[in-house]
Amino acid sequence: MGKKKKPANFDIEKHTIFLGVYGSHAYGTSTPESDVDLRGILIQPKRLLMSPFEEEFEQHEEKPEKDDADVVIYELKKFVGLAVRANPSIFDLLYLPEDCIRTLTPFAEMLLDIRDAFLSIRAQETYIGYAVSQLQRIKRHRGWLLDPPKKKPERSDFGLTDKQVDFDALKKAQQKVRDLGGDPMKVFGPEMDAERRYQTALKHWQSYQQWARSRNPARKELEARWGYDTKHAMHLIRLLRMGWELVTTGQVNVRRPDAEELLAIRTQGIWAYERLEEYLEEMTAKVDSFTGSPLPAVPDIKRIEERTIEIMERFWAHNGS
């Protein structure tokens, strides 16, 4: 077996080319209690790309302790890969308001100069997709809030013995039944179905327990007051509107003109839960049926690739690594 590669080890600050305040402060929806989230871009040392003994680097993370910022700094190649796939969070960084930028090197300016090259009609799917995932999370948590699981599921609740079904052995047994001309579903079907239902219920219980343990106290209070997670609701609506703006105008509007309404949705629960579902359906239909977008079908890959390579080469020449 080959020797395991060493984890990347280098000066993160020296290699960071861009850093900015991300999230509610950028959107204009922050409150005095809002955390400061920092996101950025770095260029890994050239040796990590060349060395067979060190791991290539993807991102740096610092999880906050009390009063510390949550920090995520993407390696340039990973950042570019996410951007060409129209990742909404990455677009937020490309179009971050100037007053949120903390570090802007000439290398980052070279990237921002071609930021429009990343835009494409792929955003039609990604912004809607992110909004759908937000609603799914809201719906799941609302279900737990209104009707929490009463107890951990037991195998006996599903008519199962204490011994878990060995699906590999079961498949072999099924094949033997087929070879003998029988129907394996008549022999094993009920047990397989019961096992699957049990595993699904157990996973649901475990997810609920993890959610209950890790809930943010302020978020918990909002959910109790309004009956659903209004912070997720705010982001759902923001994503739908930003997606619509991007697809119809070609513009990424990070600093929200509707910030006051979004903040009221989060802090005052001015939208009923049912309105969220209606709005998602309404906006999805609008975005899907829209024609005549100024966005190209795909990003300008050639331009992006050439600029990314140029940035890395200049950075390494300047920094000696």
Structural class: alpha+beta
- Integer average pLDDT: 88
How many helix segments? Answer: 14
Major beta sheet summary: 5 strands, mixed
Based on Cα principal axes, name the global outline.
Answer: globular
Poorly predicted residue ranges: none
Beta-strand segment tally: 5
- Rg value: 25 Å
Q: What is the helix fraction of residues, given as a range? A: 55-70%
> Termini, distance in Å?
30 Å
Summarize the structure.
By secondary structure, the chain is an alpha+beta fold. The protein has 2 domains: 12-120 and 297-319, Beta Polymerase, domain 2; 121-295, no CATH class.
Please explain how this structure is put together:
There is one protein chain. This protein has 321 residues and is of the alpha+beta class. The protein has two domains: 12-120 and 297-319, Beta Polymerase, domain 2; 121-295, no CATH class. It has helices spanning 12-15, 24-27, 46-50, 76-84, 88-94, 106-112, 123-146, 167-179, 184-214, 217-226, 230-249, 259-268, 273-289, 301-319; strands at residues 16-22, 37-42, 59-62, 70-75, 101-104. Strands 3-4-2-1-5 form a five-stranded mixed beta sheet. Strand 3 and strand 4 form a beta hairpin. Helix 4 packs antiparallel against helix 14 (301-319), helix 6 (106-112) runs antiparallel to helix 14 (301-319) and helix 8 (167-179) runs antiparallel to helix 9. The radius of gyration is 25 Å and the shape is globular. The two termini are 30 Å apart. The mean pLDDT is 88.
